[in-house]
Amino acid sequence: MLNCKVGQVPFLYLGMPIGGNPRRLCFWDPIVNRIKAILSSWNSRFLSFGGRLVLLKYVLTSLPVYALSFFKAPSGIISSIESLLNKFFWGWGEDHRKISWIGWSSVCLQKEFGGLGIRQLKEFNIALLGKWCWRMLVDKDDFWYKVLVARYGEVRGRLEDGGQSCSSWWREVGRIRDGGGSDGGGWFQECVTKKVGDGSDTLFWFDRWLGSVPLCVRFRRLFKLYENKFVTVAELFSLGVAEGGEAWQWRRRLWAWEEELLEECRAFLFDVSLHVNVSDQWLWIPNPAEGFSVQGAYYVLTSKDLPQVDSTAEMIWHRQVPLKVLVFAWRLLRDRLPTKANLIHRGVISPEAGLCVSGCGTLESAQHLFLSDIVVS
Question: Chain centroid to CA 130: how far?
């Protein structure tokens, strides 16, 4: 009657699979097939390393962004996509195979850490999902947030986890928000803090507003004994936090060592002062001025515990030098050029064929070819 076509799930809407299970590999087949289709139309043999690097950074790694911003990709899909990208970068094709001279994890490092700055899809996926966690803190008046409140419930400004009946999207976002799961750890909680104004929108125990960890972690014993665990800072201070105040309401009488812990908590709150008519505000610690960004979150995830490279490696990146020359210099500093010494090490040629082509009788290595004085008679 309405002349509508009858379909079935899952289906594609604006390029996004709807109604499928993102934890299954078949859910991601349209994205993987699209990458394969583009790669099949490019012949990497006619592209320099600089050209391949540009296509990788600005075309191929951008194709799955739309899906990665909504769904947590399985590790198998991440590995499959990165395998395709790795083969393209090193010049593999359907009828030939070339050596991957440097591991993909090292290629994807940022330039200041010795890599080429290609996106690591796993960490980029987590950073994209982290944006939803940030929006849940600062965009509570938006319609999408009200839909989540109606679906999962809210307690004192904090969305409930939804239990086993929640969607896979909300389950993954909730893990990032709460610091659960094996991917990402508690990075998001470590990067956000609450700047207290009047204290009416800050949970005393749960929000990170004083110190490096929430007070429910710093004073875990007191938190377990406190009756109203969702009390706000404004409510607690209005009742009086000093000795004899009515703010401290316990399920039972405190023991002597717990009284000492309470005194430590009071001392910790001694310098806190609330500002009337000033709203509480969430801050993104890596960049308090501009707030959260996917790029900033990605940098947090990929630069943790990585040492800076020496100044020699930083000197090769210059805007006026062609990119293919820069990639060549990058490989030279890592000694990952197809010299005869490296080919012998990988078993491509025999040791007898490793002498320099100049006839000097020295093993052909990067050190000998580029950094030694060679005199040709």
Answer: 8
